[in-house]
Each structure stands twice: as C-alpha cells, then as structure tokens.
Amino acid sequence: MTETDKSLLVVNNLSVAFGTKDNPFKAVDRVSFHVEQGEVLGIVGESGSGKSVSSLALMGLIDFPGRVTADELRFKTTDLQTLNEKARRKITGDEISMIFQDPMTSLNPSYTVGNQIMEAIEVHQGGSKKERQAKAIDLLRQVGIPAPESRINNYPHQLSGGMSQRVMIAMAIACDPKLLIADEPTTALDVTIQAQIIELLLKLQREKQMGLMLITHDLALVAEAADRVVVMYAGQIVETGPASDIFKAPKHPYTQALMNSLPESSEGKDRLNALPGVVPGANDRPQGCLLNPRCPYVTDRCRAEEPEQYGPRGRQVKCFYPLDEAGRPTV
Amino acid sequence: MLQFLLRRLGMVIPTFIGVSLFTFALIYLIPGDPITIMGGERGFGPEQRAELEAMLGLDKPIWQQYFIYLGNVLQGDLGTSYVTRQPVMSEFMSLFPATIELTVCAAIFAVITGLTLGILAAIKRGGLLDHTVMTISLTGYSMPIFWWALLLILLFSVNLGWTPVSGRLDVMFWVDEVTGFMLIDTLLSDEDGAFISALSHLVLPSIVLGTIPMAVIARMTRSSMLEVLGEDYIRTARAKGLSKRRIIVKHALRNALIPVITVMGLQVGLLLSGAILTETIFAWPGIGKWLIESIGRRDYPVVQGGLLLIATIIILVNLLVDLMYGVVNPRVRHSK
Asked: What CATH number does the domain containing B193 carry?
C-alpha cells in the first residue's frame, strides 16, 4: 500500500535533532511512513530507536532544544508544518490523539478522572457541563470501566494501572480522533492486563475506523494486531512492509534478529537468542550502516557506506544485502 | 478526613507544652532579674527584696513556678505585667492588631510577588528573567533585615520623600480605635486622607518584613514548578491540545503549590519573629516593640506570655496549613 492524497497521515523525511547546531544528535533521521484510515500501523524497535520521539514530533510536543524538520508532514489535507501554534492545538487532542506508556503518571493526581476527560471535550467540542459529564460516563463505559457513574469522581491514585490506562484511552477517544497514537500502551502494565488493553484498543479502532499507530517493542503483539509494520533502528527506518510479509520473511538482518530473540524461536535451547550490543547512543554512532557493529552479516561496504532504502514502495529495506526467503544474506 | 484532623490536632498538645516550658526557661537564662531593675540605681534592701520576691512568687523553686504558671495559663491567665500592672492578655490584645496588620500585608506582598516571580522564572527558565529573579531572591534572602530597612528608608523616605519614616498614621489625623486595624479604622472615620496616610505608612514595613518570605516562596515555587512541568501528566495535558496558560494554571500550578503551601506556613513564624525587628525599626506600636521593651525591663510575665501567644499562633497557622494541604492534595485527604 502506498500513500495517496486520501492518506490520513503522510510523513516524509521527518528528522528530529537534539544537541547543538554544530554537533547535532539525530534522534530521528529522515523517517517516512504513512497511515491510512482504519489501518493499524505497527512501529517496532528497541529502546532508543526513535519511536517515541517520532510520535511526539507528530503531536507537536518536541520542545526546544529539539528541532523538527520534514519534507512533508500532512494530516488529511492539512500541512502540519505551516500551522501556527493555536491551529495545531486545535487538531491535537481532537483529530489526532495519543496515549502514553505509563498511565499512573500520565494522569494529573489533583483532578478526578471525570474532570480530566471532560476537559478534553470542553476544549474541543464545548457543550454544557451536563452533556460533557454524560459523555464522559459513556466514554468510561466504552472502555470497559464498571460503575462509570461513580468512577468518574475517582482520583487517579484510587485506580489500578489497567484502569488508569482505560481512562487514558477514554480521554484520547473523547473527541472521536481520526488518528490515535499509542506509545507502548501496555509496557507499564501487568501481563494479564496487557492483552485486555490491546483488545480494547483494537476493538475501538475497528468500531471508530481510526488510524492507529501502535508503537511497541513487542513483536508478537505487532504480528497479531498490525496491518503494516515499520521497523526502526537508531532513529532510522530499516524495513517496512505488510505485517504478514515481514513476519514470514524479514529482509533486514535487524528484523530477523528481533524475531529470533522472541522466546518461541529459542525453544529447546538454554538461552534466548539475543542480538549482542545496544543501540548506539549520541556519541558513538558508527559510520556506514548504523547496525554494522551488531550485524552478523557485516561486510566492509557496510562499514564504509550507508545503504539506502531498496525495494518496491511499501516493501522497503535499508540494507545492501537483504535476506532472501530462507533468511540467508544475499552477499 | 476527620481522622486526619484529629491526628493532626493531637500533635498540637505536646508542641504547646514544649513551647511553654521553653519560653518559661529561656528568660531565666538572661542575666539580671526584675527586682534589681525595679530598684533602679538605689536598689532594695534584703528585706524589701524578699518581700517583693514573695509577692511576685519568685521565691519558690523554678519548677514550682513553672507548674503554677502552666496551671494559670491553662485557665487563660497569663499573669500581669510587673511594670504596668495590666493583665498580659489585655495588653497583648490591644497591640496585636497592629502586628497582624503588618504581618498580613507583608504576607500578601510575599505571596503575590513570590508566586508571580517563581512562576515566571520557571516558565522562562534559563532566560534573563529567570536569572534576574534568582539573583533578586538570593540577595533578598541573604540581606540583613535592618540594613535593608535602612536602605529603603534612605531612598524612599529621606531622598524621594514618598513614604513616611515611621509610625502607623500621620499625627494630623485623629482616628477612633474600633477594630485596632488602622486600615479599617481610617476607612470608618470621617477624616479625609487618613486611609491613604495609613496605607503609605504600611508600604515600607511590609516590603521589609515580606522580603525574606518572598525570596523563599519565589525559589520554592520556581523549583517546584520546574519539577511539575517535567511530569508525564503535563505531556498528557499538552497532548489534549490545551493552551499554555491552561496547562500552567490548571495542571502545573495546582500540583506545584503543594510544597509551596508548606513553606508558606513555615514563613508565618518567620514573619512574626521578623516583625519584632521591623517594628522596632519603624517604631510600629505592635507586639514586637512591646516584647523588646519588656525584655529590657525583665518583665517576665509579658515576655513569657507574649512569646507563648506568638508560638500558639504559629502552631495554629501551621495546623491550618496542614489542613489546606489536604484540600489541595487529594492523596492526603484520602489517606487513612
């Protein structure tokens, strides 16, 4: 699938840099992707790969000294880069909304959950207090909170983590967004609650035909939930494609390594297959392909030159030697 | 909430007993005794001295004196002044409004400017405004209060002639005492311009007295604001598309105020003790001046009673602050 004029979100060469002008650190480096209406786009990568920073940039939440640049940043027909602050805020939380990793700290401890949900409605849709309250109760019911009429008066510290995340979701869908960005929505939750929250998110996504950007490092989750997948490493996209293709036959050594590190693929062994090393930080980014110090198939060319995105639109891989169907490098 | 209230009230009693013991003991540490001072240069003979000691109850052992004193205090009797023969309580009550007026004005000055400067510094962190505010507050905090007062008097009263040097009201006005608060009494009276005169007398003492609390509040507000602005729920508020103003006033300030309120409560003690010095400098007829004079005369009941009353007020204000804390912070309210 490729982007069209009808695409919900089109991101072209988005970069986010921190640090000084002379010595910038690119947390996100020329990232391009698009989200269609009613589609789930999975964004996968280790910690530090730039997933969250990209999503914060889309929300307009990158502060000084962070610098956001892009060739194109379009939501429906609106160019997000030319909007002034006020017009941008009008879209944020209304048509594009976001839920975060840690629900317990993402809710304001001083206000009731009802107050915080009603605030989102008040700012974007208005209406009388009674209408807003009725809507907030309805939203809490939609996200599966029992006895919403009394829960609405609860403070965040009176809720469990799972309940808090449900409240966050209710707040995010309060204004019927077209695009919902979920940044590791289950990472901070108990394993037993994780599946429930994802199920809820997907159910709401289907019902409301939202575009959903599901940011996670949980590959198994993406394999199940996403239509298309973007794999990120050290601020760059290394592979994109339909979820089924990527999981059947990953083309980038990094994607392959991520999949090998799933416990299922280590069955019968004493240790899990791990990719040695960590994502390079601000001062130790290597020359050439950013993965080269960790890649099992590395060649001299990888150490010298940075590969481009190869392959047809919609199924691209940033590697000189993409893996074949059997998972062998085409060196 | 009721449990919280009771538990907090229970803590007041031992504090009160400790304070009474301390204020009682403290005065015996000052050299000199009231009878020597009453005798003046000629002094008393041993018989007269013993008679006076017995009359004032100073012949008993100190621990006995303390329990007699504590017993009287609990019945609301703080004793009578050795010098004026007036009950300490009634002297205190007649002077207290002047001190309250000064302290309240100083507190208003400290809270309004402290909060404003602290918030602005936090929002414009690292900028010129931030550095200016931090420098001012550090200077304000470290400057001796009497020197700061003299500087202000020199500039505004002596050179510019904008404000009066001392007192509560110009001598040309005669105002009946109704409440004891000059601002209110002058408004009630039919003297033209008396209110303005009372107000102008308040400006410098309030600024002098309020400077240290203002500096403390400004610094506390700034650091508390900065911490809160980095919280996840501020990001959530921004992701909702709220205006900057709303994020700061509704989401950040409310949480940032929690530690600031505690600090404000502690400043009340500083205000009342600072008032002693400020009142002396500006010849302000309040508790502070009265206490300083009584210490010079070794007027034990006045010093003990005055200190005890001030301490009680500080205890009560801090109790009030703790209760306010519960109102602002739902987590305190719900804790069992």
From this structure: 1.10.3720.10
Domain that holds residue A110: 96-174
Euclidean distance between CA atoms B79 and B82, whole angstroms = 9
Q: To probe the interface with B, which of A53, A85, A106 has the most B CB atoms within 10 Å?
A: A106
Within an 8 Å CB–CB cutoff, is residue B331 touching chain A?
A: yes
ipTM of the complex: 0.88
Domain tally, chain B = 1
Question: Cβ A93–B239 below 8 Å, yes or no?
Answer: yes
Cβ A183 vs Cβ A100: under 8 Å: yes
Cross-strand partners of A183: A215
Burial class (CB in 10 A: 0-12, 13-18, 19+), A245: middle
Check if the beta carbon of residue B86 is closer than 8 Å to that of residue B41: no
Separation of alpha carbons B104 and B184, rounded Å: 13
> B251 — contact with chain A (CB < 8 Å)?
yes
Q: Cβ contacts (< 8 Å) between A97 and chain B: which residues? A: 239-240
Assigned domain for B41 exists = no
Per-residue pLDDT tens over the stretch B120-142: 999 988 889 999 999 988 998 88
Least CB-CB distance to A97: which of B239, B242, B330? B239
